[in-house]
Design brief:
mainly beta; Jelly Rolls; 2 domains; two-stranded antiparallel ribbon; about 35% strand; Discoidin domain-containing protein; NADase_transloc
């Protein structure tokens, strides 16, 4: 199979190829594609293949992930969209989930505390994994990226960077109208984690017990989990969302997870964090809880974010399932990764 890669723009450098689009596909997160037209809100990477494939996910290393310094100094993707095409046909636009990062509180004299910068925290260098069974057969795809707004991150350089983008797919056998498995392009631990989620995903509501639990794992009811930073209105909204997805307090925790929580690890970007004890932490897409607060002449939206978290041991067994908030206090801090 052959692939052609192009970018909307590329930052010029004295070193040939230093910021080229192909850097986003070389398997090395220490290299990056960097756009050459910052501020246009039109940064794109395009891939065209010489045959159709069945796309079922993507992996991203957002930003310039060579180091915490290069990551913090460059513009970082915040919103993404993916255009899919079978080749020669009108592309199908697909809005992807937002990317979330660990933020830091900025406190200035005379101003309220707020999260106004991405933290120099190793979790921000973690890959993001998005799996889906609904992306379909494609021959061309285009990833569009929009930088985090400057009220969340004001980088030293305005050029948007992406270190790695790995499409996950099976080849479509045109003659026999079936799919041909190809070796995973991922290395450990992403290879094992993506397999764990893909094996569990299709049966997660009817067979939640298929979640690979470690012998010492203990799951608590999601209705009883302690979230001390979560206001009462948000807790009620969270529990209402559980019930909407057929989870009830009387059910065991595995059933609750399969019905109401596991979906946040599919069709959403999952942050895959490596832990010091050789385990892994998977931070799923958040519950975004919202209410309207009346003011003198209008209503103001108030938000709370709750992230589901799976902790895995070195054998890729689940040891813990949690719900977590950012733990930070200040304006805009609820959006931070825990």
């Amino acid at each position: 199979m052959k692939a052609w890669v192009s970018a909307s723009s590329t930052l010029k450098s004295r070193t040939p190829g230093r910021y080229d689009a192909r850097n986003a596909f070389d398997g090395n997160p220490a290299t990056a594609w960097v756009e050459g037209a910052p501020g246009t809100k039109d940064a794109r990477l395009s891939v065209f293949l010489d045959e159709r494939v069945q796309l079922h996910g993507i992996v991203l290393w957002p930003g310039y992930a060579k180091s915490l310094t290069t990551f913090h100094d460059n513009a970082i993707p915040g919103r993404l969209s993916l255009d899919l095409s079978e080749g020669g046909e009108e592309p199908t636009p697909l809005r992807l989930d937002e990317l979330y990062y660990r933020l830091e509180v900025v406190s200035r004299r005379g101003q309220p505390r707020r999260c106004a910068s991405v933290a120099k925290d190793p979790v921000n260098l973690s890959p993001r994994l998005m799996l889906s069974t609904a992306l379909g057969a494609v021959q061309a795809f285009q990833l569009s990226l929009e930088a985090l707004p400057t009220d969340m991150h004001r980088p030293r350089y305005a050029d948007l960077a992406l270190s790695e983008w790995t499409p996950l797919f099976r080849i479509v056998d045109e003659e026999h109208e079936e799919f041909v498995e190809v070796p995973s392009p991922l290395t450990s631990p992403l290879r094992e984690i993506s397999k764990l989620l893909l094996d569990y995903g299709p049966e997660r509501t009817s067979h939640p017990e298929r979640l690979p639990l470690a012998p010492e794992a203990r799951l608590d009811s999601f209705f009883d989990m302690s979230l001390p930073d979560l206001p009462d209105w948000a807790r009620e909204a969270l529990h209402a969302d559980f019930r909407k997805h057929k989870a009830e307090p009387s059910q065991d925790a595995l059933t609750q997870f399969g019905n109401a929580v596991s979906g946040h690890f599919f069709n959403r970007f999952v942050t895959v964090q490596s832990l010091a004890d050789k385990g892994y932490r998977l931070i799923g897409g958040p519950y975004v809880l919202r209410r309207e607060v009346p003011r003198a002449k209008s209503h103001v939206a108030e938000y709370a974010f709750v992230f589901p978290v799976l902790t895995l041991n070195a054998a890729f067994q689940v040891t813990k399932v949690e719900l977590k908030t950012s733990g930070l206090q200040g304006e805009n801090c609820e959006r931070s990764l825990p």
